[in-house]
Amino acid sequence: MTKKQRTIITCAITGAIHTPTMSDALPYTADDIAAQAIEAAEAGAAILHLHARRPQDGGVTIEPNAFAAFLPRIKQATDAVINISTGGSLKNTIEERIAPALKFSPEMCSMNMGSMNFSFHPLAKRYDTWKFDWERDYVAQSDTYIFRNTFADIENAAKALAPHGIKFEHECYDVGHLYNLRFCMDIGLFKAPIFIQFIFGILGGIGPEIDNLIFMKRTADRLFGDDYHWSVLGAGAAQMSLATTASQMKGNVRVGLEDSLFISRGKLAESNAQQVTKIRRIIEDLGCEIASPDEAREILGLKG
Ligand code: KMH
Ligand code: ZN
Predict the structure, then answer these.
(1) How many CB atoms are located within 10 Å of the residue 85 CB?
(2) 3-class SS shares of the chain: helix, strand, coil, % to 5
(3) How far is Cα 144 from Cα 160, in angstroms, rounded to an integer?
(4) Whose CA is nearest to atom 2 of ligand 1?
(5) How far is the centre of ligand 2, averaged over its atoms, from the C-alpha of 260 (Å)?
(6) Cα of 169 to ligand 2 centre, how many Å?
């Protein structure tokens, strides 16, 4: 009997882009990050994608101590796969960004596959209804606005992290990033089977249309054959519809307040768990099953 397809739900708890001024639900103290991560795991997230925040103002930090304030609590309360971000903020060097993953050697960490303009522009339509102070909340974080992931950065990160046996969540924000990933595999930086996060709807990357999902998937099939796993992250309003479509295409899904602050059109989510519960219900109602953390470990070949 063939094994039933299981959908891995990743929940990205807080990220580095949204600010506490945008939603009261966005966790930024260690207590809140731990509590929401635990609740998301209980709701069905097999993987927890984690960033750290400064408890005093919610700004991004890549201080390993900030991760140390919530990681043990999450590990003690859940068996979810820990995935530590190497995204940092737009100001950090790649060496600073990988420091938490090097220190904690989690089962997974992110690996961003190309440089790009990233996300916010004050005139972008999707931001115009938020209580968002562009100067205070975003420009202050960056004077370049470029999310830098050069080939040299990727190579340095891959080589430094290689001894840890960490599985990468390869963040691909556009079709070109899939070609970057193929190139990096060809020069020996990453080995199959890889895990790709197709990302849609970040300003600066590919848009959130279903045609684009099909195009990304077809391109990945051509570049990586059968030997890869994939998941979909739709940013903002596209989150649930793209995740639903991905699950029906036998892909995996990512939700969480890092990617969207909303639970439905115009309605802020109360928590990460609320988004996990929603996508889990959709997946199960449509006849699929979700993967437990151990099933995710087996599917992705994690070090455990
Ligand atoms: N913020 C997401 C669009 C990372 O953490 O390295 C992608 C992300 C990047 O999660
Ligand atoms: Zn992230």
Answers:
(1) 26
(2) 40, 20, 40
(3) 26
(4) 259
(5) 12
(6) 10
Q: Residue 276's beta-bridge partner residues?
A: none
Q: What is the ipTM of this complex?
A: 0.96
Stretch 138-157: mean pLDDT, rounded? 78
Euclidean distance between CA atoms 274 and 257, whole angstroms: 10
214 membership: H or E segment, kind and range:
helix 210-224
Q: Which atom of ligand 1 is nearest to the CA of 51?
A: 5
**Ligand 1, closest atom to CA 97?**
6
For residues 249 and 72, give the distance between their C-alpha atoms in angstroms, rounded to a whole number.
35
Q: Which two tokens stand for residue 32?
A: 């809140």
* The residue to which tokens 């790709």 are assigned: 196
Give 56-105 pLDDT, tens digit per residue. 888 889 999 999 999 999 999 999 999 999 999 878 899 999 999 999 99
Angle at 181 between CA 205 and CA 4, to 5 degrees: 90
Q: Whose CA is nearest to atom 7 of ligand 1?
A: 171
Q: Which atom of ligand 1 is nearest to the CA of 110?
A: 6
Ligand 1, CB within 6 Å, residue ranges:
12, 15, 85-87, 110, 112, 171, 199, 202, 235, 258
Q: Name the residue among 216, 260, 253 with its Cα closest to residue 235.
A: 260
Single out the residue of 258, 296, 254 nearest to residue 36, CA to CA.
Answer: 258
- For the chain, strand residue ranges (E) read 6-7, 9-12, 47-50, 52-53, 60-61, 81-84, 108-112, 116-117, 146-147, 167-172, 194-200, 228-234, 252-255, 262-264, 267-268, 289-290
Domain 6-300, CATH homologous superfamily name and number = Aldolase class I (3.20.20.70)
pTM comes to 0.95
45 phi/psi in degrees, rounded to 5:
-75, 125
- The rounded Å distance from CA 187 to ligand 1 centre is 24
